[in-house]
Amino acid sequence: MLDALDIDADASFDALVTAIASSRNPLDESLLASPSGRSWVLSGEVRHVPHGSGASLLLTVVRSRPFAGRERGLRVYAVDAQAPGLGITPLPTIDDDCAARIEFNAVQVGDERVVGPSRDATTAIDAALDCATIVAVAEMIGAADAARCAAMSWVSTRVQFGEPLARRQVVAHRVADMTVACDAVGLLLADALTSIGDNTGRPDALAVATLKHAANRLLPTVTAHAHQLHGGEGYYADRPLHRWHRRVTALATQFGDQRAMRARNAELLGLPACF
């Protein structure tokens, strides 16, 4: 992800924050950069930034207004969290990820704060988003598979009506469905990772879109089924099951929710947007 934006991987960032909420497209956040002498003025709002309230440095995707008759397109600026005009409001979220709403009220930055291409960085941003999406899905798989394993262990040892729950056909089928879902997304993840080597270091866009669409649809169901199989035990706060479910649910909305991923797949396949 850092390579796509030409960022030093050894740089000390407390958080890398992009203008992404439930939509895949950073333009949906409507951040603009207007020229002001030798600097740029950033204006707009990002409604939901994971880890935003604890970040000391923000990587912000904005659209630059035309300057000297030239359209600069999308750019990425590194903005200090303490910069004048920057407002950070903590937001409660389902997985307590220190999210925040960030407002840019005439925040001034110079060209030296540009990260990556100085002109239109759309290609680099797309590559970075694809890489970030792969990382997010990998975390979703880890959490969902942990919930699946916990459920398998529980139904194998929990005895009801004189036998373990796992011996009941409906329970065995449910666990099998959870395993198939985790394995299916895992195979798509492997395909997306393989495409990096086949595509000059950048993931294949269609492979990533397909991966995220499948993860959004299948993995939250896995953690929900794990809760159901645990019965009342699954709702104790001192058990990790609720943390896995919260994390999967939250990540399903980041870097493209179900609707956004359907539209993304349709676009890449040349199908109508309503598909």
In terms of topology, how is this protein built?
Layout: E1 32-36, E2 39-49, E3 57-64, E4 74-80, E5 86-90, E6 100-110, H1 122-157, E7 159-160, E8 163-164, H2 169-198, H3 205-230, H4 241-251, H5 258-269
Parallel strand pairs: 1-3
Antiparallel strand pairs: 1-2, 2-6, 3-4, 5-6, 7-8
How is this structure best described in words?
This protein has 275 residues and is α+β, with helices and mostly antiparallel strands. It is 42% helix and 19% strand. The protein is built from five helices and eight strands. It has helices at 122-157, 169-198, 205-230, 241-251, 258-269; strands at residues 32-36, 39-49, 57-64, 74-80, 86-90, 100-110, 159-160, 163-164. The strands form two sheets. It has a six-stranded mixed sheet, with no helix packed on it. The chain has a two-stranded antiparallel ribbon with strand order 7-8. It is elongated, with a radius of gyration of 21 Å. The model is unreliable at 1-24 (pLDDT under 50).
